[in-house]
Amino acid sequence: MTNNAKLTDSFRWTVSLRLEVIFFVALIGLSLFVRMYQLSADPPNQITFSQGIETDPPQYTIYARDAELNDNWNSFDDNRYITYQYSLVSLASRVVFSTFGVGTYQANLVGVLLSLFSMLFFYLIIRKQSGSGTALIALFFVAINYIGIFWGRRPFLENGMTLLFLSGLLALVYADKKVWGHWLFGFFLAGSILFGKIIGLTFIAVPVGYYLYRI
Hints:
10 helices; globular
């Protein structure tokens, strides 16, 4: 066994499949409850120094709203924030609005769905690298994270950005010995920046560190 393998194994903790399923379902159920409880309600006062948690989300979903109600993505021909139309949040909003109708609850549901898929992918990544027990512990802390709960209840671009990045990381972890795994990682990394948010550029530090480590 190589030194690298020993280092990886030292962080691995695996539980039985039965226990994993029980705790996984319980944690996902907890995550759903705390994120969907009174989903249309405003967040607590002073949760942040910024008003972004209330002023930002509507502008990210307004194009999908127009498309659903007026069959026109840009009814007012306002191109100042047209970049929001071409985001994962906008696409997800269009699907949710066309399925459940248009409203505050539905708009916030977009954030919940994107954040839950991110949690699932994060869990699968940790499970692959460090075992099911370690993944359950990580999922627990993500599920009860106070700020994460309220940010995950709003259709922020960051929720789409995170999901796209974790999609690429998932491909890399499960197919790191395949060329297409690395190509998919690059594809989703670029997507997290172009169709998520520009701050996704900070994610570039991850592949740089990873490939330097491999070299």
